Every structure is written in C-alpha cells, then in structure tokens.
C-alpha cells in the first residue's frame, strides 16, 4: 500500500513540469513536420506555405496593426454576442426549469426555433441588418442561446429531488433553496452548455465575417484569398485554433474553480 | 479492497471511542437526565394515495423520550406513517399531535440516503440542519459540536464525496441533531450500510438517544435492529398496528444475547405468519 501511494509522488518529483507540456507535444511535432515538408519541397508553397512564412506574415500584419485590430474586432463581436445570447438563454433556462407555466408557454416555441440551423438565417439577417455589427451579434447570440438554454434547463430539471425535499424539510426559503441546492446542482450541466456555446460562438462568427463584413478575422482571411495571400489565410486559421483553445481553457478554469466539490475535479 | 478495509478500521475505531465516552458519561451522570422529548398521540390516522388506502386507522400513543421501532413487510405503510409524523405527507383523516406547541426544528428526519449537499463542506452541511437559526452567530459552533457528537470533527472541512457511506450517514445524523430536535424520525437509516458499519451506527444512535432524550421513531425492516435499539416494537400489517411489544431488556444490551434472539424470533414468526396468511388467500 505504501508503495502504491508513493509511486505517483516520486514520478512528479522527477519530472516536475512534464505534465503541463505533454498536450503540446503533438501540435509542435505537426508544425515541425510541416516545416520540414515545405523546406524540402515535398509540399509546394502555393498549396501550403511553411510555418516560418506564416509566422513572417503574422509579424508583418502585427507591425502594421492590422492583425491586432482584426482580432480585437472579432473578439469584441464574439463576447458581446455571447453575453447577449447566453444571458437570454440562461434566463429562459432558469424560468422554464423552475416554473411549469413558463415552460408550457415557451418551451415548444423554442424547440421549434432550435431546429432551424441558425446559419440558414444569414441571407435574411443581411436583408434585415445589412452587413452591420448588429447582424453578426444577432447570429452569434442566436447560436449561443440554444446550448446554454437547453443545458441550463436540463441541469435544473435533473437536480436530485431528494435534496430538494431535504432543503424544504430543513426550512429553506425558495431563494435559499435555489442558491444552496438547485443552482449548484445544475452547475455541471450549465458548464457543458457553456463549452458547447463557446464552440458555436466562433463558428458562427467566422462564417458571418467570411460572408459579410468589412473587418475581423474572417474578413482578413477572405481579403487574403482575393489577393492569393495563402500565408495570411493559414495564419487566420491558426489564430482560430488558438482562440478556440483559449476560450476552452477559460471555461475549464472556471469549472475547476466552482466545481471543486465534484469528484471529477478533485486533486488527489 | 485495501481502501474498504481502511474505512472499516476507521469506523471500528470510532466504536471504541464511543464506548469509552459512554462509560465516562455513565460515571459522571448520577441523576436521571431530564427528558426533552415530546410525547406523540395519533388518533384514527388514515392515508390513501388515490384508491390505495395505505394506513387504515392507526391509534397510538408514544410517551416523551421513548424509542419506538416500527417494523413490517415492505409496502405495509411503515414509511408512510413516519412521513406523516414528520409532516412530509398530508393526512387523509385523523390527527397527530405532539402534546405541546412545536417548532419546525423540533421534529427531524433521517433518511436511508444521507442526502448531503455534495457542493457544501461537511460543516456547512451540518449547519443546514439549524433551519431558521442558520444565520445566528453561534451556528458554526453548534454545527461543530454536533460533529464532535458523531465523532467526525476531523472531517469538518472535507467534501462529502470523499467520505465513506457510514461517515456520510453520521454527517446526516449530525445535521439532524444540530437543532436539538425533540422528536427524531429515522427512515431505514442504516439500510444501505455494510454489516460492521451498521453495528457501529446502531451504537452511535443508541448513545445520542440516551444522551439527548429525544423521542425516537425508527422504521426498519431489520427486526434484530429493532429489538436491540427500541423500548417498544410496533408491527404494522395491512395499514394497522398488528402487535405492540414492549422490550423490557436492560441497557446496554448485549448483541446476540439469548433474550434478544428469543424476542426477535417471536416477532419474526408473527411477520412470517402474516405472509402465509396472505398466500393462502
């Protein structure tokens, strides 16, 4: 038993930061392989520029200020759209999870709207809003709404009824019951919704920016395609990957912070 | 496997400690402890769920501070009776009265499942039991002393997920005790525990009951447990009290003694008799 207990500790002592580096081994290896393939001429630069060329293009755009401006515009659209759609979805999820009346009134309608792919609304949205900011915000908000709504609702509906009964027996008021039993119980499910929503947020934004925009990462990629700047196109794609990873890490950190009670998040 | 053994060892340790405390207390306590329990009178109690009449007229008086075990086959209505006493179901007909005015904190229930909030530390789970007094300044101190009572004061800052089944149930007991209830209803509280943990929990229940003098109502399917813990055993059959048996065996009762075994045997025989009767119909 003492041997089994001490084994992981010994390993951690010997390779103190290895655990944090392991996830990056594969991406780094791919970039290395890619560079080698380009330099040796195995892949033509017109098909796929070398990572070093992509980095160079990024550096040039960074110096001109174009890159930072476009990332900032996209980031702003993503977060504002997410906040609007997320808070509406969360509110409906809470209301329909807690109130039978509200659920009867709105759930059927919401389920019907949910089955329309929100990107199919792009032509309509352009007609309504033009290629203005509001068009992008609307699409992002709509895309984010449903995963947050569905998972909040599911989380609240599946809170252990025995715990709710316990709360009532011990004299909790409705507010206390929500704060101490229902909301914490729904939180793991809400986080699942949050992470789905973050993925949909980027997807929607990029598609919207690619089709109709005059700034942002999607616009930058489309402009680059017009001028056959394939290195900038690849750069945009890599930035999407990094931003997506960043959003996911942020939500994971939030999960670890608030779900420390959950066996799945406990450090041993 | 090693994990399981370790938990049991920890439980066994508490048993020894509990017995030690018990002995010390008996030496210390010269006079009889004042009774804090409430008496309970039930008259003509009926309960139906739709067309199904579960309780068909229960008349019962439980003196203050008595410990009563309710046994019966599954579906006989024993849990329903307990839930009615605890105010968790509405009465179809009849009355339940506690002799005097009661506050919500005076009657507490302990279930088969611990029903702890997984997202609250052990101590705040116990604080939940204070009811409306949760916000009072001494709440934490009271929760702490309830944890000491069940021998889990060293686990106050843990999450429930890391506790063993028996430890979770002890936290649930501390939560039920923290408001100093005058009636404590147990709905198969030990049903989900393994045999060794069960025995240690039975001793713990007996000790806190003797210490605090509440009226204890224990629903169980385990007749041995009923005769070991209770002053009186009620056998419920078909929604009525079929037998009302006083257990006049002095405490501390020795587990496995001939007296207990004989009493358990006769109650079991009654219960089995009932089974044969219905199978004849």
Assembly form of the protein: heterodimer
The strand line-up of the biggest sheet of chain B is 5-6-7-3-8-9
Order of helices and strands of chain A: HHHHHHHHHHH
Order of secondary-structure elements of chain B? HEEEHEEHHHEHEHEEH
Total DSSP E strands of chain B: 9
Number of strands of chain A: 0
Biggest β-sheet description of chain B: 6 strands, mixed
- Most extensive chain contact? A-B, 21 and 23 residues
* Bulk shape of chain A: globular
Q: What structural class is derived from the secondary structure elements of chain A?
A: mainly alpha
Question: Structural class of the helix and strand makeup of chain B?
Answer: alpha/beta
Which percent band covers the strand fraction of chain A?
under 5%
Shape-level CATH architecture of the largest domain in chain B: 3-Layer(aba) Sandwich
Count of structural domains of chain B: 2
Give the % helix of chain B.
40-55%
**Count of discrete alpha- or pi-helical segments spanning 4 or more residues of chain A:** 11
In CATH terms, what is the fold-level topology of the largest domain in chain B? Rossmann fold
Tally of domains of chain A: 1
Under CATH at level 1, the class of chain A stands as Mainly Alpha
Structure write-up:
The complex is a heterodimer of chains A (268) and B (281). With 268 residues, chain A is mainly α. Chain A has eleven helices and no strands. Chain A has a single domain (53-260), classed as MetI-like fold, CATH 1.10.3720.10. Residues 1-12 of chain A have low confidence and may be disordered. The radius of gyration of chain B is 19 Å and the shape is globular. Chain B folds into two domains: 32-102 and 182-275, P-loop containing nucleotide triphosphate hydrolases (Rossmann fold), CATH 3.40.50.300; 120-179. The longest helix of chain B is centred in the N-terminal third of the chain and has 27 residues, at 2-28. The termini of chain B are far apart. In chain B, the strands form two sheets. In chain B, strands 5-6-7-3-8-9 form a six-stranded mixed beta sheet, with helices on both faces. Chain B has eight helices and nine strands. Chain B is of the alpha/beta class and 281 residues long. The chains are: A mainly alpha (268), B alpha/beta (281). Chain A binds chain B through residues 1, 162-163, 165-167, 169-172, 180-181, 184-185, 187, 259-263, 266, and chain B through 2, 86, 88, 104-105, 108-109, 111, 113, 115, 117-120, 128-129, 131-132, 159-162, 175.
């Amino acid at each position: 038993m003492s041997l089994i207990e001490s084994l992981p500790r010994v390993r951690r002592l010997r390779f103190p930061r290895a655990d944090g580096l392991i996830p990056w081994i594969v991406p780094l290896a791919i970039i290395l392989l890619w560079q080698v393939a380009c330099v040796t001429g195995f892949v033509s630069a017109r098909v796929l520029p070398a990572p070093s060329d992509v980095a160079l293009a990024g550096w040039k755009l960074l110096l001109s200020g174009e890159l930072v401006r476009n990332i900032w515009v996209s980031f702003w659209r993503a977060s504002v759209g997410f906040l609007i759609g997320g808070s509406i979805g969360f509110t409906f999820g809470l209301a329909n999870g807690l109130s039978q009346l509200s659920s009867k009134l709105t759930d059927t309608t919401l389920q019907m709207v949910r089955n329309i792919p929100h990107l199919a609304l792009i032509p309509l949205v352009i007609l309504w809003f033009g290629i203005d900011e509001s068009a992008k915000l609307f699409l992002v908000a709509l895309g984010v709404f449903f995963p947050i709504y569905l998972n909040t609702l599911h989380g609240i509906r599946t809170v252990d009824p025995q715990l709710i009964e316990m709360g009532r027996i011990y004299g909790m008021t409705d507010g206390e019951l929500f704060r101490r039993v229902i909301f914490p119980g729904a939180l793991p499910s809400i986080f699942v919704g949050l992470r789905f929503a973050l993925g949909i947020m980027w997807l929607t934004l990029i598609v919207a920016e690619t089709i109709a925009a005059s700034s942002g990462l999607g616009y930058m990629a489309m402009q680059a395609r017009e001028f056959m700047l394939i290195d900038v196109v690849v750069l945009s794609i890599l930035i999407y990957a990094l931003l997506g990873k960043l959003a996911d890490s942020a939500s994971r950190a939030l999960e670890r912070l608030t779900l420390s009670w959950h066996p799945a998040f406990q450090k041993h | 496997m090693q994990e399981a053994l370790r938990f049991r060892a920890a439980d066994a340790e508490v048993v020894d400690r509990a017995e030690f405390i018990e002995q010390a207390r008996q030496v210390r306590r010269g006079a009889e402890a004042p009774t804090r329990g409430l008496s309970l009178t039930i008259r003509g109690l009926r309960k139906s769920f739709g067309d199904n009449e579960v309780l068909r007229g229960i008349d019962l008086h439980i003196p203050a501070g008595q410990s009563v075990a309710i046994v019966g086959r599954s579906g006989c209505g024993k849990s329903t009776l307990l839930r009615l006493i605890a105010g968790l179901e509405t009465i179809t007909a009849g009355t339940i009265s506690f002799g005097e005015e009661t506050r919500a904190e005076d009657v507490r229930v302990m279930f088969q499942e611990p029903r702890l909030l997984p997202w609250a530390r052990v101590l705040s789970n116990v604080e939940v039991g204070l009811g409306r007094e949760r916000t009072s300044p001494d709440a934490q101190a009271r929760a702490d002393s309830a944890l000491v009572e069940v021998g889990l004061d060293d686990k106050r800052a843990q999450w429930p997920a890391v506790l063993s089944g028996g430890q979770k149930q002890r936290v649930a007991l501390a939560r039920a005790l923290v408001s100093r209830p005058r009636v404590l209803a147990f709905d198969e509280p030990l049903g989900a525990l393994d045999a060794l943990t069960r025995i240690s929990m039975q001793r713990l229940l007996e000790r806190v009951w003797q210490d605090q003098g509440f009226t204890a109502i224990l629903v169980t399917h385990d007749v041995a447990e009923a005769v070991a813990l209770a002053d009186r055993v009620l056998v419920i059959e078909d929604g009525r009290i079929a037998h009302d048996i006083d257990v006049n065996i002095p405490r501390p009762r020795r587990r496995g003694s001939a007296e207990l075994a004989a009493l358990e045997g006769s109650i079991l025989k009654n219960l089995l008799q009932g089974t044969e009767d219905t199978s004849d119909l």
